[in-house]
Amino acid sequence: MAKLEKPEVEFPDGPAPTRLEISDVVVGDGDEALPGSTVDVHYVGVEYDSGEEFDSSWGRGESAEFPLNVLIPGWQEGIPGMKVGGRRRLTVPPELAYGPAGAGHRLSGKTLVFVIDLLGVS
Length: 122
Known about the structure:
Blueprint: E1 21-26, E2 38-47, E3 53-56, H1 57-60, E4 64-67, H2 73-78, E5 87-92, E6 112-121
Antiparallel strand pairs: 1-5, 2-3, 2-4, 2-6, 5-6
Family: Belongs to the FKBP-type PPIase family.
EC number: 5.2.1.8
GO molecular function: isomerase activity
């Protein structure tokens, strides 16, 4: 597999979706992430409305490893079924991200777009 580089997240058109949108950019051929997996990922996250990047493992120069069950619901629903070597785009509405506006997180009330590269699962 070719080494993936930091993705450019295309600015979305139209109103934010009200449901989780899952789109495979690259389909991997390695081990499959399951609901209880720990995942090793590279990712970039942008706000749907502004297109502003709010987080990126690429910016830190290293991947991130997380148990899926501690991540936002959009990741818990959107990553299982993905295979190592894949790149997936998730568009996550507020209720599957950081909750409604005023919920106490700086991203509360925002629809978020993530592009996630799955590097490993355990």
